[in-house]
């Protein structure tokens, strides 16, 4: 079974991060939330406090099959400035592991030049940061080992595409049924 890490930073958009965690766990995918703050508590952009499963300096990155970057401000800026995040996204990309981001966070992938020639989407206003990407205005863009999405309103389809990436259409359908959610 796949295992995914979700980086969490102060100022993150909690819906974008926690929706992914919830849906992946419903599908049976193991998920660890990873604080980059040096503490196990994160405060979201809307002042919601929550605890993470581990801290960036303690995470076993070799055990993850994919990584997720939630957006939000200043969470995206905090992720972008973090050396561990930068190293992990580059290593995962090079290894063909899933690298995914939502809202403003695809800008991190774009500025790291990981989206060159790939379809990608982001929150309106961050398109210029998708360096070399083929920008598409759709809720979720999947291209090889990258998945990007536009924002909080697309968090469920984003998470479902991560489920599809690691599992299959039947797993997505099962999660959707449990959520009473129509997708595709």
From TrEMBL:
InterPro entries referenced in this protein's UniProt entry, alphabetically: Class_I_gatase-like, DJ-1, DJ-1/PfpI, Prot/Nucl_acid_deglycase
Superkingdom field: Bacteria
Gene Ontology CC: one annotated term: cytoplasm
Record domain DJ-1/PfpI: where: 3-164
Record Pfam families: DJ-1_PfpI
Protein name (Swiss-Prot/TrEMBL): DJ-1 family protein
């Amino acid at each position: 079974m796949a295992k995914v890490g979700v980086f969490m930073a102060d100022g993150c958009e909690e819906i974008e991060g926690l929706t992914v965690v919830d849906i992946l766990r419903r599908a049976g995918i193991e998920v660890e939330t990873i604080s980059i703050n040096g503490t196990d508590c994160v405060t979201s952009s809307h002042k919601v406090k929550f605890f993470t499963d581990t801290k960036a300096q303690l995470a076993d990155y070799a055990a993850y099959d994919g990584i997720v970057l939630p957006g939000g401000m200043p969470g995206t800026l905090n992720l972008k400035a973090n050396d561990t995040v930068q190293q992990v996204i580059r290593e995962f990309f090079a290894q063909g592991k899933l690298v995914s981001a939502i809202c403003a966070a695809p800008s991190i992938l774009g500025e790291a030049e990981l989206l060159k020639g790939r379809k990608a989407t982001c929150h309106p206003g961050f398109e210029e940061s998708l360096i070399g990407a083929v920008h598409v205005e759709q809720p979720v863009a999947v291209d090889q080992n990258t998945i990007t999405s536009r924002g909080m309103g697309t968090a469920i389809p984003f998470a479902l595409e991560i489920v599809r990436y690691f599992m299959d259409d039947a797993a997505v359908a099962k999660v959707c049924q449990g959520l009473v959610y129509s997708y595709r």
